[in-house]
Backbone:
């Protein structure tokens, strides 16, 4: 491990600490996190000053963060503050107080710096070439537009979930009237942004921030969605509207009882949802892609892989898989070899399976992580690999691809699909996908068997399809009896999946 860093993000609503291990070769992994609701931006609207009660709450929280960093052996702390501190008239004295009391030097980000970090967090973790990012903070809302993975435009609107809630708290308006007033205000702001009018129709809306995470939790409860992964979750805007309509009319006590909604966010979520609603209507969006990565991940990429400051990652999924292979301490040479052989087999058997090229991604995920379950135990490690893939931090990949890859990895030993497990994911995969999993599972099983001794003995494979047989010729460096014997044990499954006899020479 190269270094351990602490990243503190002090927003208008909450303060977050993430502790990150930076590894050699530009990889990183989050190992701890702490979040507190400090409401630093509350009641600022009247005079522009951070209030003493909020400041002392923040100092208490940051002291706690400092203690955890010291106890965790953090080498250095990167602490940034956003909108509330940026706007505060008592900014200087606040920063000095934090430095004196907590030993933490806070850097106030400019709106440009903040937007760029959010963009970097998204672009290096999502495989969406053209996007329109909406990030709702406590004191401001950012809109970032990129195309062909290049940042084109961004803007910061000085309204977020905390200050919007404050503005209408004592207005005498009913909850739904407050939501309507916020929508109207945000729509007026959007109408003043000239470049928004020229955004491509097919740019994907991407939601970032705590309000979107809460919206995911509520949506997951409503739809009984089986995967607890906010990153790359997709929500139709027609499914957003009923959630918004339900929440905007409730009083605070009822909102606090909503499953999936954190009590500390219950009072400010309606304002955030009103911002989302105004944006959806103005931009005629039909789907929201959720990003679990934003500003803090932007900082992580800057620190771990400084090259991403100039140019985003080209292969988001590849980088993510490499990170996990290293983190799970898999045999990297074996993984590389199995991935290579799997892809060779996929291409050479295409005339039989007829899968389009994008299915190689599923095979690559399964082949890269097929042995990660050994971190739990060797016996039945394919079952543990299945679970770990379903719950890993995988970037640049859809939820469907994650689920399919997990089941493919589970098939790399002689094991068929557990239909009870499969039924749990029926909202993400279909019965037609069973055939895909079985065929890719056989390919992975043979590829893995052909490196049974983890020695790279079998260099390449060439398949000839002759009548009702597939003749697999191996190019070997030394005796491959073990590998070929192991691979031939998959002949029965191969025949079931491909309706051909298998011979390996």
Residues:
């Amino acid at each position: 491990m190269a270094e351990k860093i602490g990243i503190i993000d002090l927003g208008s609503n909450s303060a977050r600490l993430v502790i990150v291990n930076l590894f050699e070769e530009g990889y990183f992994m989050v190992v701890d996190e702490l979040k507190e609701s400090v409401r630093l931006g509350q009641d600022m609207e009247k005079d522009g000053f951070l209030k003493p009660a909020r400041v002392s709450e923040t100092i208490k929280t940051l002291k706690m963060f400092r203690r955890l960093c010291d106890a965790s052996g953090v080498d250095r702390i990167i602490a940034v503050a956003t909108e509330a501190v940026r706007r505060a008239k008592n900014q200087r004295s606040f920063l000095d107080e934090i430095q004196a009391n907590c030993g933490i030097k806070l850097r106030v980000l400019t709106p440009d710096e903040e937007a760029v970090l959010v963009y970097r967090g998204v672009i290096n973790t999502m495989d969406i070439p053209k996007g329109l990012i909406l990030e709702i903070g406590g004191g401001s809302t950012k809109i970032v537009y990129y195309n062909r993975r290049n940042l084109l435009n961004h803007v910061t609107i000085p309204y977020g979930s905390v200050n919007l809630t404050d503005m209408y708290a004592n207005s005498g308006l009913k909850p739904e009237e407050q939501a309507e007033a916020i929508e109207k205000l945000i729509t007026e702001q959007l109408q003043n942004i000239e470049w928004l009018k020229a955004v491509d129709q097919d740019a994907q809306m991407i939601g970032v921030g705590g309000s979107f995470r809460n919206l995911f939790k509520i949506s997951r409860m409503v739809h009984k969605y089986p995967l607890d992964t906010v990153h790359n979750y997709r929500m139709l805007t027609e499914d957003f509207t009923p959630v918004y309509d339900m929440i905007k009319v409730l009083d605070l006590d009822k909102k606090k009882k909503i499953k999936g909604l954190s009590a500390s966010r219950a009072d400010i979520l309606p304002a955030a949802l009103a911002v989302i609603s105004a944006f959806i209507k103005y931009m005629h969006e039909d789907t929201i892609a959720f990003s679990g990565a934003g500003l803090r991940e932007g900082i992580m990429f800057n620190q771990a892989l400084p090259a991403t400051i100039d140019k985003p990652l080209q292969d988001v999924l590849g980088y993510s898989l490499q990170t996990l292979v290293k983190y799970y301490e898999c045999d990297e040479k074996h993984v590389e070899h199995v991935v290579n052989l799997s892809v060779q087999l996929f291409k050479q058997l295409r005339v039989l399976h007829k899968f389009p090229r994008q299915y190689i991604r599923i095979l690559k995920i399964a082949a890269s992580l097929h042995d990660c379950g050994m971190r739990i135990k060797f016996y039945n490690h394919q079952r543990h690999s299945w679970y770990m893939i379903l719950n890993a931090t995988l970037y640049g990949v859809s939820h469907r691809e994650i689920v399919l890859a997990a089941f493919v990895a589970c098939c790399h030993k002689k094991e068929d699909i557990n239909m009870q497990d499969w039924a749990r994911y029926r909202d993400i995969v279909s019965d037609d996908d069973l055939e895909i999993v079985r065929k890719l599972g056989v390919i992975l099983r043979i590829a893995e068997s052909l490196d049974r001794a983890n020695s790279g003995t079998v260099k390449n494979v060439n398949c000839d399809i002759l009548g009702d047989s597939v003749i697999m010729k191996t190019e070997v460096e030394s005796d491959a009896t073990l590998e070929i014997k192991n691979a031939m044990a998959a002949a029965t499954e191969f025949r079931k999946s491909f309706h051909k006899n298998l011979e390996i020479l």
